């Protein structure tokens, strides 16, 4: 799915990732980023940016993004087994953040 948030989106950096990482994530989310919903937890997503993956939570109350983790991925995880993604993009096509 493509996850797109509005320009007022705030990224909460509680784990003190470098500012460049946080700003890149924010820009990706504003322009539209490939994301995979976590099938076990609502409002949690893997956002993919080439080899970099961001694990985020979007607060349903404030729409703020919490950056929980980021890593470089050598290969794309096997998402066909449904371990990390719920194929439900209708939420984002009908909601504005």
Topology:
Layout: E1 2-3, E2 11-12, H1 19-31, E3 33-37, E4 44-49, E5 52-58, E6 65-72, H2 90-94
Parallel strand pairs: 2-6
Antiparallel strand pairs: 1-3, 3-4, 4-5, 5-6
3D structure, described in words:
The protein is built from two helices and six strands; from the N terminus they run ββαββββα. A hairpin with a 6-residue loop joins strand 3 (33-37) and strand 4 (44-49). The two termini are 15 Å apart. The longest helix is centred in the first third of the chain and has 13 residues, at 19-31. The protein has helices at residues 19-31, 90-94; strands at 2-3, 11-12, 33-37, 44-49, 52-58, 65-72. The protein is globular, with a radius of gyration of 13 Å. The chain has a six-stranded mixed sheet, covered by helices on one side. With 97 residues, it is α+β, with helices and mostly antiparallel strands. The chain has one domain (2-74): YaeB-like fold (2-Layer Sandwich), CATH 3.30.2310.20. Helix content is 19%, strand content 31%.
Features:
97 residues, alpha+beta, six-stranded mixed β-sheet, 6 strands, disordered C terminus
